[in-house]
Amino acid sequence: MSDIETGKAGxxxxxFLKQQGTYEVATEQAVKRVIAYQLSLAMQEQGIxxxxxxxxxxxSRSQLDRLLDPDNDKVTLAAIARAxxxxxxxxxxxxx
Length: 96
Fold this sequence. Notes:
By secondary structure, the protein is mostly helical. Helix content is 65%, strand content 0%.
């Protein structure tokens, strides 16, 4: 009897990604997307425009656009931490 027939979900998606050798890259991309989304949402909730956010970060609007781009993986942790501070948040990460 297959997993579908018995009502089981089968392997975890993370297991599939590991088998494909793409788990680490997919995880990094997902984390960057979430952070970019959270920063954008916090800016929106607080009424902070991109122009004002760039001023607070002492950077250009184009640099801010790169920071908020969920596909840009060239953003430093320091830049993300500074942006988080501007919107009253804190960047927290850990090694497991």
